[in-house]
Amino acid sequence: MNLLDLNIRNVSDISPLGQILGLLALSYSALFLTRRITRLEAPDPVSLYLCGLPLAVQPFFLENLSYKFDALPMLLGQSCAVMAASLLWDGALLRKLALGVFFLFSVLCFYQPCLNTFLALCVVVFVADCARNDLRTAWRTLSLEACAFIIAGIAYHFIVAKHFVHGSYEGGHAVMRDMQTLSLSSLMDSISGGTALLNSLLHAGAKPLLCAFYALGSVYAVRKGLACIRQKTSLSIAAGLLAALSPVILLLLLAGIMLLLQNPVYEPRTFTAFSACVIFANLPFIFMKDHKIRLVAFLPMLYFFVISYSYGNALAEKSRFENAGITHLTEILNDAGFKTGDDLFIYGNEREAPVVRNAITIFPILAKLLPRQGLHDNDIFGYVMLRKNGADSREHSSAEWNTARKLLQNTNIVRNTPDFTLYRTGRIYCLTLQGS
């Protein structure tokens, strides 16, 4: 990103070019993944859709696409993760290993949660190889991916992490668990945090639909696993057990590397590996010969498209409603005598747009996907939005913010409406929002 903005203070706004370039890269990687799973140089369109669409058209990935500045590295991270999981053992070994290390090192540099996608797709590809009874290729490819993963991790640690990773956010959220903090209870807490995010998607009519398709993929994987176990060799038994356990492994990999962090952040954008879960559920249809029945697999994808459409509408309406509210509040502050350099303290939440509230009622997952309120207590984003509209104030420390509460008295009220109350004492302004 420093290269893209020529090392100036502010990154240039190139959206939606970032999303377009990132989706082109992701589409290209989807072709390689489909070739790897089907072993066809020119896969049929249905297989391409079943393997490719879930990489981007899945609810938890929508937030990644909505960012102006981070969308490109996030999409490139997902693309590189897919490419790293699409390597085949056949061919020049050193070349394949070098490519794997390059792609995984790129994932670590672009967006680390996409490692979850890589690990999950490795499991999906392994199950696909077991379905073909090609256990030799399955184990060799898995070992190649493991070696590339270890080498890339070591290189990233010594080249990048030690010299370029800095900042208060990274310092607080990139700390790995050690023997003192690693415990069964802490891991269970992390798993419950990831499960809560997943449950926001599994509601009402969506739950039986999505669970039924995942159960179908699970039955398919267990059947192929049992077929491998019946061969009664050490490699076939190990492969069969891994294939049979794959449904559980994939669910654990939704949280993935965050399980190893002391302060994990469970946000929708981090669930990149949900794409692998959808592709896993599609495996029975990918290898099915009846093209009419294969079309049934598009039902979850159709549902995800509906969520995407509703997300786009809600996001646009949220932005319009929010900007209108910010503009109105700026005018009120200016009328009350607010000048640059005055102190503004914000309490409460801004009101939610009715259209957004209705969308969340229909699709509860949107409550997790949509950005939080721009005006929310002493949040920096609210101050930035007000600053853009002419009400220039600084962010305050928690102590200053709590001290200013003493000024919230009726004698200091300048303006009172059902949506907000404005208080003023000298050059100090307090704004309390009455939103939900």
UniProtKB/TrEMBL annotation:
Membrane spanning segments where?
14-34, 46-65, 101-127, 139-160, 204-222, 234-259, 271-288, 295-312
**Record has Membrane as a keyword:** yes
InterPro entries according to UniProt = Glucos_trans_II
Which Pfam family is one of those matched by this entry? Glucos_trans_II
Q: Which UniProt keywords apply?
A: Membrane, Transmembrane, Transmembrane helix
* Name of protein: Glycosyltransferase RgtA/B/C/D-like domain-containing protein
Q: Which organism is it from?
A: Gluconobacter wancherniae NBRC 103581
